[in-house]
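$ ./design --mode recover --in tokens.txt
reading tokens...
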């Protein structure tokens, strides 16, 4: 009779198995945290958690941690390669540019209304938030109408951003012949990758010829037909020309990820080559877990390093990573004009505390800090030397730079720059310089403690 003997130098009992699982869980957490682009203090937060609750911490990190997904990156790269094979490289030249930036978001809503009704073949819309309010219902009704008329309609909403949106908003569109998909559901085994990876992109493409992008979600908080003192101050942009094809490629890749559709079924759309519509050079940049590197962050770094005269930043949340922040400080210290405009109070109070340290350091380096007073400022703009303009969905914080799926466009066109500079000037007229009162209060022990805690937790928000 054969008798099995344990060849290992220790007993395979429950205690050792449990110890092994704890060690593996701890190692997994350490590897994932070290690979993330986070501050040292944030990384150290996981120390006590993994020491006392290794399995729970590993589970949380598995579901919500991590920055990149190599499998998704390969799929997205394959779709881009297929588009290049079918249509050739997308030109950055030959685009028209129009800013949609009135005080109450009426311009953007009207532009969406016009383009939805004008589309002849297809409508592709991706949004972080589709609100179940008057604006959300209006957009849904227009899409239902066009779907019934035979236009291809695809609507992609983020599963978390549109969490509270009733499913009936989508069902009506599906019954009319349109298609609706939810991006990366939180429940395990439903999404692809970390539940912390949200699609923050706002893209609307019509017939592959015209596109609207920016920071505005589809809801009354962002746009409307009537004035509202609760509306965020924001803007979007209408682009026409080759940039629309580049944006449609991003949408198709996201749609395939969300629905498991075969990109080959979109071959005809990927072959699209819009005619030139204007004089603006527009480079489309998609960033997120599906990218090999961090292309938007890399673009910001290049623009800051090469700035000769000025950098202007408009953002609702200002919590940059260490490398980007040090570059801004260095540029300000060299005498370049660095302006950062943020809302006096945003819709995320903890991020307002987290930004204090960064704003104080920039102020001391010579930068201009402006607080927009009347409303919540939600616009996202980056201007370098009055030559390059970055627009899109990304905030200047670590979530947008390293976790979210974001869309941006780098615009080089004097007329476009002039329009955006005028918009920034209108915001500046309603802003106040860095508050010395806030400056003093943030240096008290209580203020510093709140700052430190908020700054540490910022990557989670």
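writing sequence...
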């Amino acid at each position: 009779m054969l008798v099995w003997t344990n060849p290992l130098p220790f007993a395979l009992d429950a205690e050792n198995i449990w110890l092994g699982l704890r060690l593996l869980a701890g190692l997994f957490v350490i590897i994932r945290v070290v690979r993330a682009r986070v501050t040292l203090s944030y990384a150290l937060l996981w120390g006590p958690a993994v020491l006392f609750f290794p399995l729970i911490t590993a589970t949380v990190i598995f579901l919500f941690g991590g920055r990149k997904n190599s499998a998704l990156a390969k799929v997205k790269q394959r779709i881009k390669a297929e588009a290049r094979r079918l249509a050739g490289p997308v030109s950055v030249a030959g685009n028209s540019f129009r800013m949609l930036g009135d005080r109450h978001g009426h311009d953007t809503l009207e532009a969406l209304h016009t383009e939805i009704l004008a589309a002849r073949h297809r409508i592709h819309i991706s949004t972080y938030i589709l609100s179940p309010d008057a604006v959300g219902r209006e957009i849904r009704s227009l899409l239902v109408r066009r779907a019934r008329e035979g236009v291809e309609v695809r609507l992609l909403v983020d599963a978390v951003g549109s969490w509270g949106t009733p499913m009936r908003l989508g069902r009506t569109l599906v019954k009319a012949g349109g298609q609706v998909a939810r991006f990366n559901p939180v429940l395990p085994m439903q999404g692809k990758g970390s539940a912390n990876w949200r699609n923050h992109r706002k893209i609307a493409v019509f017939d592959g010829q015209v596109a609207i992008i920016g920071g505005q979600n589809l809801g009354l908080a962002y746009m409307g037909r009537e004035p509202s003192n609760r509306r965020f101050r924001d803007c979007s942009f209408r682009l026409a020309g080759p940039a629309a094809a580049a944006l449609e490629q991003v949408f198709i890749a996201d749609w395939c990820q969300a629905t498991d559709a075969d990109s080959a079924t979109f071959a005809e759309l990927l072959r699209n080559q819009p005619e030139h519509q204007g004089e603006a050079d527009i480079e489309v940049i998609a960033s997120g877990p599906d990218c090999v590197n961090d292309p938007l962050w890399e673009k910001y770094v290049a623009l800051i390093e090469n700035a000769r005269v000025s950098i202007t930043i408009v953002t609702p949340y200002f919590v940059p990573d260490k490398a980007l922040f040090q570059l801004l400080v260095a540029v300000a210290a060299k005498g370049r004009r660095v302006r950062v405009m943020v809302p006096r109070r945003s819709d995320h109070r903890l991020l307002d505390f987290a930004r204090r340290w960064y704003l104080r350091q920039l102020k001391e380096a010579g930068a201009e800090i402006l607080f927009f007073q009347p409303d919540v400022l939600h616009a996202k703009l980056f201007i370098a030397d009055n030559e390059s303009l970055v627009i899109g969905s990304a905030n200047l914080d670590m979530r947008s730079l390293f976790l979210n799926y974001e869309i941006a466009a780098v615009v080089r066109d004097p007329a476009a720059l002039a329009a955006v500079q005028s918009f920034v000037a209108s915001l500046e007229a309603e802003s106040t310089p860095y508050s010395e009162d806030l400056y003093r209060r943030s240096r008290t022990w209580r203020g510093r403690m709140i700052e430190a805690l908020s700054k540490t937790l910022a990557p989670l928000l």
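exit 0
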